[in-house]
Amino acid sequence: MLTNKIVKAGMTKKKIYIGKIVGTHGVKGLFKVELYNKDFLNFKFYKNKTFIGCTQINFEKKFTKGKLTICKSDKFNSIEDLASLIGKQFWIDEANLKKNNQNDFFHKDLMGCKVYNNKAEFLGKVVAIHNFGAGDLLELEKNFKYMIRFYDVDKEGIDVENKKIRLSKNYEL
User: How many angstroms separate the CA atoms of 104 and 61, rounded?
Assistant: First the structure.
């Protein structure tokens, strides 16, 4: 997820980009959405919390078509209404993110965490998280030559407050 800070009425907010409008669907104001995270499929949780630029917008999922989600909004009734929004990303304030349970982690929480193998040896800091279809992979600083499968992370070994991750398997430098 891409992030950006905004300042509004003296308060700093952190934008979490959750997707973008990639095209129209039909002639009655439906539009195609590319979501950056499948957890945002239930737009009801984010009613009155989703924005394009500084404009609040509510989405209603109509159906999925391949990897895209077809949506409707009360703000759009025609293709013309959508023309200026094609390619625009939509976002929520970081404070509005919802976790399903305490063992869920946002990528932003894991960035910068120090990673240790199961022998408590420091391997490096998380600099990126990738997913090529088979699960999340942690990329560590450039001196560590492998990516680490998130599957190999001991879930009880994740301490986001202290920015530490302990692996359940032994990776070596």
Answer: 24
Residue 87 falls inside a structural domain:
yes
pLDDT tens, residue by residue, 91-133:
988 888 777 677 777 888 899 999 998 888 899 999 998 877 7
User: How many angstroms separate the CA atoms of 27 and 127, rounded?
Assistant: 43
Burial 37-60 (b: 16+ CB within 10 A, else e): eeebeebeebeebbbbeeeebbbe
Q: How many domains are there within the chain? A: 2
Contact at 8 Å (CB) between 51 and 90?
A: yes
Question: pLDDT (tens digit, 9 = 90+) per residue, 153-168?
Answer: 878 889 988 999 998 8
Are 73 and 143 in a shared domain?
Answer: no
pTM reported for the whole predicted model: 0.62
Q: What is the CATH number of the domain that holds 30?
A: 2.40.30.60
